[in-house]
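--- STAGE predict ---
source: upstream dedup step, 1 unique chain passed
mode: sequence only
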Amino acid sequence: MSPEVSRYAKHLLLLTFAAGLLCLVLFFVLPHAWFSPSIPFLFVFYYSCSLISFILLDMSIRKKINSFVSVFMLTTAVKLFLYVAIMIIYALINRKDAISFLLNFFVLYLVYTVFEVIQIVSLTRTSSLTDEKRNAR
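--- STAGE serialize ---
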């Protein structure tokens, strides 16, 4: 595992724990109807999807920057379709919990997406600086 992936996994774990703790606090403050019973699984789901996509992006950026763009587009598209499929399937299977699930899913989607974008920009900047140093030699 590369140092970037290891660092990303640690930061992602901290984000997941912080979001989980905030969710727990909000559970006691806000109406219970806003929270889906499946929210713990959503944290595991988002953690897993984010880590897998970052590992793929890290592997691709080590090969060529051109492959990075293709892998980035592919992982983004696959995640988008996966997320939409999960939302639709869950809403159809569990209609009583659909609104709270979709609300929780969307909020976590925003949190993890902002985190991923920040980390990917950092990864590409680091990679660009490394490539510039190699080319200068």
